[in-house]
């Protein structure tokens, strides 16, 4: 566009009746014309006086626009000889000569990004019959929590509104160390406790600090898809190891090639529910000591054990400082709280605390302070005891319905602890299709085969969460599910 035509072009586009000020319109139009090469580099612009007269706007407006665009690099001004369009085209030599033109592929993900999204297990449904692993958040003692919160909020200490110190809020680490020593036989001092946003973040931090991309990590097969994805996204080589009745069961060939790390759920195998035997625990600890590998103990829900007391943690048996214990408040209080923790060996306490603060710039100290009071004043223990009774009743109600409708046809497993059980199905049955059809009928479950590394070798079943279904709704919702199950089992 020739300079003489510019005034006409601008005059046609300037809307003096609209709400956008002339200053902003002129700036936008000139920017667009320069980016679209309508005004090429080196082109001289009309003087501010001339342009203001031709457009019928204040000269100051044009001066301001020219100055602003000069600051942004679109124009060269103030040389005395006029205002010119600056040369801002990218230097092709500097950019090199790409083999392909990637323009237009703005949605392209990295390979690990593609893998993560393609294999994601996360569900849109987080509440209702029979979503596995969700606490009954309607029973959360909100009045107590809000009283404790108000106490801190009345006159908040500046440090509570700031970033978290490395490792988290000190009184919470003290209260938690006390609780874990007593309730879970964890051997720890408060300094070894690192407060995180949950098990996902705890595992993420542990693999970043203890593994390098490409390192081999053992996971149980089947296992929780969430932490599997966290580790996969860190570029680790995951090796699924089958489980038997005693927990993770590496073969002699597996044992000959020790991994850098393994992730296990000894108190309540996820999702099948068995407890790791003492012999297997001792074998793993000795193996980790001799072969210098790390064990992550995911103790996500073992507070809720129905027939007997919670079991001793693997960490409590570890004399060689190989176990990193991870836990969460999501299953006990409510998932959206997003507070969890790691217990690390003493030598790792300082690096973990520093790395956490460095990577994630933690905060939420007010919530941590409320939680510290909640534990120290006995509300936490009372809530666990109360909810163990509530969930125990719901578990029995669900087991009763399953057995009443299906008897021996649908054996139940993994019901001794936690917030879900597994309804076993015959091997020929497509549990994914069944879960899909159940969802269409309004009931959320998860197919057991989805937790295995190879669906074709998986045991079939449905994970049914009973914790977040009210007692009086269990029979009704199970009846809906049972009709879908009967169709698949060809019992009708
Ligand atoms: C075995 C297991 N580990 C960890 C988690 C997630 O823990 P968080 O919510 O603290 O990240 C879950 C959630 O369902 C789980 O089942």
Automatic annotation (TrEMBL):
The keyword Ligase does not apply. GO terms for molecular function: DNA binding; DNA-binding transcription factor activity; pyridoxal phosphate binding; transaminase activity. Transmembrane segments: none annotated. Coiled coil: none annotated. Pfam families: Aminotran_1_2, GntR. Keywords: Aminotransferase, DNA-binding, Pyridoxal phosphate, Transcription, Transcription regulation, Transferase. Gene3D superfamilies: Type I PLP-dependent aspartate aminotransferase-like (Major domain) (3.40.640.10), Winged helix-like DNA-binding domain superfamily/Winged helix DNA-binding domain (1.10.10.10). InterPro entries: Aminotransferase_I/II_large, HTH_trans_reg/aminotransferase, PyrdxlP-dep_Trfase, PyrdxlP-dep_Trfase_major, Tscrpt_reg_HTH_GntR, WH-like_DNA-bd_sf, WH_DNA-bd_sf. Residues 20-88 form the HTH gntR-type domain. In the C-terminal section; belongs to the class-I pyridoxal-phosphate-dependent aminotransferase family. This is Putative 8-amino-7-oxononanoate synthase.
């Amino acid at each position: 566009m020739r300079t003489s035509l510019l005034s006409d072009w601008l005059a046609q586009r300037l809307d003096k009746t609209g709400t956008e000020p002339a200053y902003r319109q002129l700036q936008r139009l000139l920017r667009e014309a320069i980016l679209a090469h309508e005004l090429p580099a080196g082109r001289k612009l009309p003087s501010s006086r001339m342009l203001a007269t031709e457009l019928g706007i204040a000269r100051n407006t044009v001066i301001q626009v020219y100055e602003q665009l000069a600051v942004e690099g679109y124009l060269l001004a103030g040389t005395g000889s006029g205002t010119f369009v600056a040369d801002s085209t990218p230097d092709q030599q500097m950019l090199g000569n790409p083999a392909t033109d990637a323009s237009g592929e703005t949605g392209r993900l990295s390979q690990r990004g593609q893998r993560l999204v393609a294999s994601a297990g996360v569900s849109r449904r987080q509440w209702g019959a029979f979503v596995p692993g969700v606490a009954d958040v309607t029973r959360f003692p909100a009045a107590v929590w809000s009283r404790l919160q108000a106490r801190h909020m009345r006159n908040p200490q500046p440090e509570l509104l700031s970033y978290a110190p490395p490792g988290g809020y000190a009184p919470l680490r003290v209260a938690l160390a006390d609780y874990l020593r007593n309730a879970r036989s964890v051997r720890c001092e408060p300094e070894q406790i690192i407060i995180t946003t949950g098990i996902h973040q705890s595992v993420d931090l542990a693999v970043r600090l203890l593994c390098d991309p490409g390192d081999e990590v053992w996971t149980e097969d089947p296992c929780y898809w969430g932490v599997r994805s966290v580790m996969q996204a860190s570029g680790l080589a995951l090796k699924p190891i089958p489980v038997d009745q005693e927990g993770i069961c590496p073969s002699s060939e597996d044992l000959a090639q020790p991994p850098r790390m393994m992730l296990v759920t000894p108190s309540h195998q996820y999702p099948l529910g068995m407890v790791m035997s003492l012999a297997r625990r001792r074998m793993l600890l000795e193996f980790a000591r001799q072969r210098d590998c790390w064990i992550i103990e995911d103790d996500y829900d073992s507070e809720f054990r129905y027939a007997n007391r919670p079991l001793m943690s693997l960490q409590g048996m570890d004399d060689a400082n190989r176990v990193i214990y991870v836990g969460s408040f999501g299953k006990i209080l409510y998932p959206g709280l997003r507070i969890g923790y790691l217990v690390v060996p003493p030598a790792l306490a300082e690096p973990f605390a520093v790395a956490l603060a460095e990577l994630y710039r933690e905060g939420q100290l007010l919530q941590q302070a409320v939680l510290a009071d909640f534990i120290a004043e006995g509300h936490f223990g009372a809530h666990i005891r109360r909810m163990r009774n509530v969930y125990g009743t719901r578990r029995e109600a669900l087991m009763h319905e399953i057995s009443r409708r299906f008897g021996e046809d649908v054996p139940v497993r993994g019901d001794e602890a936690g917030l879900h059980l597994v309804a076993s199905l015959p091997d020929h049955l497509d549990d994914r299709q069944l879960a899909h059809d159940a969802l269409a009928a309004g009931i959320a479950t998860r197919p057991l085969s989805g937790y295995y590394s190879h669906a074709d070798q998986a045991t079939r079943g449905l994970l049914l969460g009973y914790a977040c279904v009210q007692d009086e709704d269990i029979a009704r919702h199970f009846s809906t599910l049972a009709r879908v199950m009967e169709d698949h089992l060809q019992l009708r």
